[in-house]
Structure formats: C-alpha cells, structure tokens
TrEMBL record, chain A:
Protein's recorded name: Branched-chain amino acid ABC transporter permease
Cell compartments where the protein resides: Cell membrane
InterPro entries the record matches: ABC_transp_permease, LivM-like
TM region positions: 27-46, 58-75, 81-101, 108-125, 158-177, 210-229, 244-269, 281-300
Keywords: Cell membrane, Membrane, Transmembrane, Transmembrane helix
Top-level taxon in the UniProt lineage: Bacteria
Keyword NAD carried by entry: no
Pfam families attached to this UniProt entry: BPD_transp_2
Chief localization: membrane
Membrane topology: Multi-pass membrane protein
TrEMBL record, chain B:
Protein name according to UniProt: ABC transporter ATP-binding protein
Recorded superkingdom: Bacteria
Keywords: ATP-binding, Nucleotide-binding, Transport
Lineage: Bacteria, Pseudomonadati, Pseudomonadota, Alphaproteobacteria, Rhodobacterales
Domain ABC transporter: 6-248
GO molecular-function term, one example from the UniProt record: ATP binding
Any single Pfam family the record assigns to this protein: ABC_tran
Originating species: Sedimentitalea xiamensis
UniProt-listed SUPFAM superfamilies: P-loop containing nucleoside triphosphate hydrolases
Amino acid sequence: MRSKLFLGATAAFAVLAAGSVILPDWAMFLCAMALAKGLVCLGIVGMMRGGVVSFGQGLYYCIGAYTATLVANSFGVSDIFLLTLLSALACLLVGMAFGPLLSSYRGIFFAMLSLALSMVLYGSLSKMSVIGGTDGLNIAAPTFLGWAPEGRPLQTALYIYVVAIVVIAGTLMRIYFDSEQGLITLATRDNELRVEYLGASVRNIMTYNYVFGAVLGGIGGTIAALALGHVDPEFAFWTTSGEFVFVAILAGYLSVPAVFVAAIILELVRSFSNLYFPNTWQLALGIFLLVVIVLLPNGLGSLVGRRKGNAA
Amino acid sequence: MTRTVLEVRDVQKSFGAVTAAKDISVAVPEGAVFSLIGSNGAGKTTFVNMVTGYIKPDSGSIRFADRDIAGMAPRQITRMGIHRSFQIAQLCNDLTVEENMLLAGAIHGASGPSFLRRAHDPEARDRAVATLERFNIAEHRDRLVPELSGGVKKLLDIAMAMAGDTQIMLLDEPTSGVASDEKFPIMDLVMEALRSTGVTVIFVEHDMDIVTRYSERVLAFYDGRIIADDAPDEVLLDPEVQRYVTGTPA
Ligand SMILES: Nc1ncnc2c1ncn2[C@@H]1O[C@H](COP(=O)(O)OP(=O)(O)OP(=O)(O)O)[C@@H](O)[C@H]1O
Ligand SMILES: [Mg+2]
C-alpha cells in the first residue's frame, strides 16, 4: 500500500539525514556525490525495466551540470532550487528532442546511439574554449532560498538537499514503476508485439522512460557540479556513463533503494582502491561486478525487492 | 438483415513470388461466427494479419466502422475494437497470469493507463480475476507464463484480447498446441465467453469437427484465394475443398 511506501521514504530520509550529523566531511561529500550519481543511475534503471540500457547518460549529467554552471556564472543565479529546476528543464527539452528518435532502437543500437550523443557533447565542449574547453568551469557555492552557508554548514545543507531530492525522486519513481504505465514498461521488455496488440504504443513508453532518465540525469549533474564546485567535459565522457551503467546493473531493477546503495558502494570502492591500489582499482571494480552478476543476476535489489505482486 | 461489420474487398498480398492473398473479398455480418480453413500456407494467418494491421495489403480495402483500416497500425485497429489472439500465444513470460491480465486491463481501461494508479489496484485485480474466471483460468493467477500448459496459454491470450471493448475477435488457431482432449472444452469455454458479449468472431481452425460445431460460415482458403464460402456442411461437401483442404474424397 501507499502508506507503506511513504513510511519507507520517511525512514530513508531520516536515516540518510542522520548522516549529516555522524559522517565526517569526506564521507558526507562522498555520499552526496554518490547520491547525485545515483539519481542518474535511477534513470537508467527506469529504461532497463523496458529492456534498454543507455550508455550515454553522461549526456544529461553533463547538460545539467553545464546548464547550472552557465546560468550561475552568466546571470548570477545561485539559488540551488532554481538552478536544479532550470537544469532539469533543459534536460527535459533535450530528452524530448532525442527520445522519439532513440525510442525506435533496441539493445546495442540504443546503447551505442545514446553513447554517440554523449560523445558528441564531450567533443564539442572540449573544443569550446569560451566555456573552458577541457579545463571546464568553476561554479560558486549555492545559496538556499537566500541563505548562504559556508564550510561545514554548506556541506551539510548540500547533503540534506541531495538526500531530500533522492527521497522524493525515489518515491516518485517507485510510484511510477508500480503504476499501470510501469507495468506496460515491464511488458514491453518482454513482448512488444503483445503490448502493441493491446493498443499501447511501445514507442511512447520508451520515450517516457528516456525523458524521465534525462531529467534525473540533469538533476544529478547539477548537484554533482555544485558539490564539486566545478564542471568539465569529463561529465559526458564514456567512462562516466559507464560507471552509471555499472551501478544500474549492480543494483538491478527490482528495488529503488538498491540503486543508491550500489552508487555508494561504487564510490567507496573507488575511493579506497584508489588509495591502496591506484593502478588496479578498475580491475577490483570489474571483479566485484562479475561476482555480483554471477551470484545475483537481478542485482542487489533482488536481496530485498520482489518483482511479483506488491512491491513496496 | 444484420449490419455488415467488416467488409474486405479485392485484397491482394504477395511476399516476393508467393501470393498469400488474391482477390480476397468477404462481408462479415455483425455477431456472426466465421471460420477460416485451409492447408498450411493457404493464407489464413495472412488474412488475420491484414485485418489486424500487422501486414499492409498491396491493394484492396478493409472497411470497419466506416473507415478503410487497411495499412493502419495494429495499435490503432485494436483501439477501434478489432482484437486478435495468436497462433503462438503472445504473452509476457516474466509476468504472472494475473499481471498479464492486469496489463490488458490497464491499457484498455476507460481513462487510459496511468502513471500514478497502481497496476495492482484492488479494483483492477478484481476485474482481472473476474475475466480470468470467465475463461476458467483464475486458479493459475499467480503462476508465471512459462509454467502454463498450452491450453491455459491460449485461453489467457484470448482473455487478454477480450479485456477491451471488442467488436470483432479474430482467433488464429485457438486449439493448436492444445492436447486433443482439451480442444472441445477450450472451444466451449471460449465461444461461451465470446457469445455472451455479442462479439463477431472469426477463427482459424484445422479441425473440421470444431469448424462444423462452432461456426455458421466457413471460408476455405487455398493458395491465397477463397475457394469456398458457405455454411459448414456445404463447404465440406465442396469437391475443391475436399481435394485441397480436407483431403477427404466425396
Ligand atoms: N511475413 C511473411 N513474409 C514472407 N512470406 C510470408 C509471410 N507471411 C506469410 N508468408 C507466406 O504466405 C503464405 C501464406 O501464409 P499464412 O501464414 O497466411 O498461411 P496459413 O494459412 O496461416 O498457414 P498455417 O496453417 O501453416 O498457419 C505462405 O506461403 C507463407 O510462407
Ligand atoms: Mg497460420
């Protein structure tokens, strides 16, 4: 029932928000980045439910980050709510432009086409010296409805902000996954012919999922840019997109919280292996993913989520 | 006189050198039960595919609800009220029986599928189970599709197609892949469920006992043409039909 969902969301918010008190600076930053990236991955999971995987979600991560930065630097906007809204809007528009095109592709073609779009953006940004070229741009610390914290309070505010967005987005996506349209998405992955012959448009449902993924990607990119204070074309680079896919596969499509758990795991593994075996951490990550795929083919989410019946 | 609900006129379709439909013309009265017979490759599925939009005829018209539907997308034709089942049941294997039915209900629902309304809404489930009960497969509701027998799959396929506001139902070999002792019970169930809604039925069938028992008119296909079009008894006595379709000499 819905009440269970809202209870879960409240609990998730409480637990995550408690991090702002307990966690040291570095860990809070790590979690904020992981949650921001988790938003992007949640978008991929939405597409995965329909049977496609975007290898180019860096596109929206990057568009979101640059939109916020350019708006902040050109118009002096620093309000985090406004910046997030504008980036989401920009990604909504771009998503709506490319969605109908991509929605007729499946499998490797969908993956490669989305990758190609992101690499075009990467290439263009790298060449555009007016907006920093490969060096990128800096973005000033955000304000929160007029409040301009600094130091630890800024970190905390940013962290609480991303936690709130994650909980809201996660709840909305869960509602969507469990909805009638969500069921059509699952059915599309399974049997497109059946879906069309029931009278639903497979292309439309694919477009919706793509556009939702775009918006989530943009929000994630905005928050990441604000947390880092910096954006560069790497946001759209294929390795960035690859990490998002990694998290989505690690999480599976059964559980929304699993996406954010997976995102945090990735950040932790990256930080620690970077520290202890700087040259082989990708190897560690690869082995880790392999083990998960073998042991939990439906991802971490299958430890808690049930596909059948009433997922919470 | 009953109204003509579907009128196919001079329809042609070739796949390269193969003529799958040649000069196909037929008028189907509302509420009628038609059957299509013919040997393998005679063009029966092609007929169903053209009426339901899977294949666009090379020429000719298919009139339904005052429109020429030839070449329209399956989705549009479905929304207009022509539904079908498949020679090989088309189901979602990762979903349970009930979820397959919920899917059909969600798409056919009056307000269209929602982004917010739960697919497993209690009311929707009641409706799904009621339809499953009509087809006598409610007991399988929690099972996944791959665990089902051929007969149950066929019934579910038909039940899903009947979830909407169906005016014409085309069944492509409803009893193929079904154990022989299940064929009549299944047809009884299906025909009873369909008749109670007043829907027009066109079914493809190889078993002549079923054809005689359930249809009032038979179209016999051979080599993409309709070689006979009459009441079952008449068609089965037709020498051409005996030669090319039933293989029973007079
Ligand atoms: N999509 C297609 N592409 C090429 N040829 C096709 C296609 N669909 C049907 N055909 C050909 O058209 C002819 C009629 O096929 P159809 O499937 O309509 O036969 P049928 O009467 O349904 O036979 P069966 O009893 O085996 O199901 C066959 O020769 C078939 O090979
Ligand atoms: Mg056939």
